[in-house]
Amino acid sequence: MEGAALLTLVVLAATTVLLVTEALPIGIVALLGPVVLVLGGVLDAQELWQGLAHPAVVAIAAMFVVSAGISRTNALGFLGDGLTRISERGPRYVLVVMMAAVALISAFTNNTTVVLVGLPVLLAMCEKTDQPPSRYLIPLSFASIFGGMMTLVGTSTNVVVAELSPPDVVLGMWTFLPMGAVYVLAGVLYMAFVGVRFLPDRMALSMTLSRGIPTEYVTEAEIGAGSVLIGKTLDEVSQRNEVQVLELVRNGIIEVPRPDAVLRDGDVLILKGAPGQIVDLSRSGANIVPTEDDRHVTTRDVDMTLAEVIVPPGSRWIDRRVSDIGFRSRYGVSVMALQRHGHHLRQKVGDVYVEPADMLLVQGTVDALRNLRASENLILVEGIEENVPRRAKAPLALSVLLAFVLLVSFTDLGLATCAITCGIAMVLSRCLTAQQAYSSLDFNVLLPLVGFLALSTALEKTGLAQDAASTTMSLLDGAPMWLIVAVLYAITAFASDILSNGAVAALMVKIVVPAAALLGVDPTIFLMTVAFAASAAFLTPVGYQTNLLVYGPGGYRFGDFIRVGLPLRLIFIVLAAVFVPLFYGGPTG
């Protein structure tokens, strides 16, 4: 193997490991590999940066702006109104109607936007009807994924595949509809009658707070001057306040938390306990103040309320330290604890860098929480639909979305041009401000796509894509088309469970196009297989942004996605093997 090909393989493997382990921010990892290839002479500088102006990247960025206009105007508010009205019809009825509605809407707007709208609505409905949100939130996420498969603009994965396709293959707005509709029908029926049996019965954290059900958090408490805890031992504090002391920090040094250690003024405790227990401890003179700007603030006010917020994708606080955000000065709330991927972080909360889908336990007055609810950078897990700005612009935002669909469907302007036009229309019509448009760009999606477009170019230049296609086809030599489709679908889908969907699609397109040439079949059949498989990330909460968003509020564990998603994955593989060759040409074997 020549040096360029070997270096490309090493970089691809290293990039995959770094993304899976989350050792570095995803944007840094995505660009690091291509930079190494440029320094190694595999790519030139122009090939590295051409991804920034690639039609797929431009189109997806502009589609984020269009979706932000829909979100900011609450143009999908009717979804919540409808669910509230049918909540008394029974859980299965609500599940089917909710999934069908979410799938239909997701066909035309960003999946994440739909989930962000539906999430607080479902939590509020579950609290009102005394049902566990865990029965609805995975179906919410999966329905948005199903629906996104139906059209060109439904998901960024379809955009990537369409824009990277050979010139003689045209994947239009409705090319994806036949197979996408099959997946929506099968997915909704599976979740309503089979998948629901695998869903756990767990309450959302916000609901456990309101019902007094113990939910433990890890947080930091500083012993203030005059505290009644001074002179008490750790064992006495633990028994009196029913908290577990994890670490004792004295004079900046972490000490072993011995039960007989006597507390002093200025000691810091890292402790675990239920929210009520933490608040009781604060009234004893322990300041629950994990952020730097809250050092002087206590939580003894009787009107203080606990609440939880989610950090949405695109928030300006992502990759910022909690202590640098200034929750007290900006929103009038104190951050007491942080949960990530279902786990409470033991480290000092103020030093944690915020990531998408983090859940923060905050404390503040009712007025402070009302102000927090109006922020586009944080989402209160319930009640957000009550206070969304620019509601009067909702019909205008829907008109822009309709114009977007019509332009893509009936003109030859190209997806990127149509998306930019409608994104600008959202701003000019004041459905959102220019600053909100900039903030809507999700660089955790865009930067990996730019990086993997460069890596896919390297695969093509070094001949690795051709080699991979030849190897795959040699292993499947003589196999019927349904089996080839099933294998390609499985490889792509399982890769998408751990890597960016768009990145996987970009790499697989470079492999399946030469593979189709080797077999002498229309490449459309393989391209569509890749498009549908790359979107079907059901097995992990990190495989798709919408899965990550429902992970914490639903009280899910990693295994819940495998239990629900694995049978669905197998069903979708079978459906692809049967219907993709039927709908998109090629011999059926």
How many strands, which pairing sense, and closed or not: the largest β-sheet? 5 strands, antiparallel
- The structure class reads alpha+beta
Note the beta-strand portion. Answer: 5-15%
Mean pLDDT: 82
Helix content: 55-70%
Uncertain residue segments: 289-303, 382-389
Number of individual domains: 2
Give the beta-strand count. Answer: 10
Query: What best-fitting shape do the alpha-carbon axes yield?
Result: globular
User: What is the rounded distance between the termini?
Assistant: 34 Å
Q: Kindly provide the radius of gyration, computed on alpha-carbon positions and rounded to a whole number of angstroms.
A: 25 Å
Order of neighbouring strands in the sheet with most strands: 3-2-4-1-5
Task: Please outline the helices and strands.
Layout: H1 3-21, H2 26-39, H3 45-49, H4 55-72, H5 77-86, H6 91-106, H7 111-129, H8 137-148, H9 156-164, H10 177-193, H11 205-211, E1 217-223, H12 234-241, E2 244-250, E3 253-255, E4 268-273, H13 275-282, E5 286-287, E6 305-310, H14 322-325, H15 327-331, E7 333-340, E8 343-344, E9 359-364, H16 366-373, E10 379-380, H17 394-410, H18 415-428, H19 434-439, H20 443-461, H21 464-475, H22 481-496, H23 501-519, H24 524-535, H25 545-551, H26 558-584
Antiparallel strand pairs: 1-4, 1-5, 2-3, 2-4, 6-9, 6-10, 7-8, 7-9
Helix pairs in contact: 1-2, 2-20, 4-7, 4-9, 4-17, 4-18, 5-7, 6-8, 6-10, 7-8, 7-25, 8-10, 8-25, 9-23, 9-24, 10-26, 17-18, 20-23, 21-23, 22-24, 22-26, 23-24, 24-26
